[in-house]
Automatic annotation (TrEMBL):
Any one GO molecular-function label of the UniProt entry: macrophage colony-stimulating factor receptor binding
Listed transmembrane segments: none
Any one Gene Ontology BP term: positive regulation of macrophage differentiation
GO cellular component labels: extracellular space
Coiled coil: none
Species, as recorded: Odontophorus gujanensis (marbled wood quail)
Identification of the protein by name: IL34 protein
The encoding gene: Il34
Length: 169
């Protein structure tokens, strides 16, 4: 699909890209590409902040962090998680194409956020994003499917109401 869309993906808006990501992160696809195509109990080492769970988002919401800042944080956490998965895959791995498609969608979404400045996001989110891109954080072993499960749950949580054109299917 993305090969056909080519550069048109970059022209899609935030909500349409989120909808495409939700489609790409369907359970069957996560199961096939992130569980069945990996050895049993396989894990990747990621930074602690890359495991963005719904509970983390809820806690940040209670701290009065803006929804736009939370979507920005989700983008960075999910992009880093997918990048770590791509890095461990051999060139001919059956999951490589799938993860590269996810990266293309996330890169296109990144274009939506490229205009954000440090002052545009809440300070706590700016600090978390800075930690995500540094090597000074704690690391933990996480299964690839669990990383994408969290990406999808938080995606639905943050974009479901914001993008009223799609639901929680």
């Amino acid at each position: 699909v993305l090969a056909v869309l080519g550069l048109e993906v970059a022209a899609l808006g935030e909500c349409e890209l989120a909808r495409l990501l939700q489609d790409k992160l369907r359970y069957e696809m996560r199961l096939q590409y992130m569980k069945h195509n990996f050895p049993i109990n396989y894990t990747v080492w990621v930074q602690h902040e890359e495991v963005l769970r719904a509970a983390n988002v809820t806690r940040l919401r209670h701290g009065k962090v803006s929804e736009a800042s939370l979507r920005y944080l989700w983008f960075h956490a999910c992009s880093q998680a997918v990048l770590h998965i791509v890095e461990v895959l051999p060139e001919k791995h059956p999951s490589r194409g799938y993860t590269q498609e996810l990266m293309q969608l996330l890169d296109a979404l990144g274009m939506e956020y490229s205009g954000y400045r440090q002052s545009d996001v809440d300070a706590v989110v700016a600090d978390l994003v800075k930690q995500l891109h540094s090597d000074e954080s704690r690391h933990k072993a996480v299964r690839p499917k669990a990383l994408l499960d969290n990406c999808l749950k938080v995606l639905r949580m943050l974009f479901g109401e914001h993008c009223e054109c799609w639901g929680h299917s």
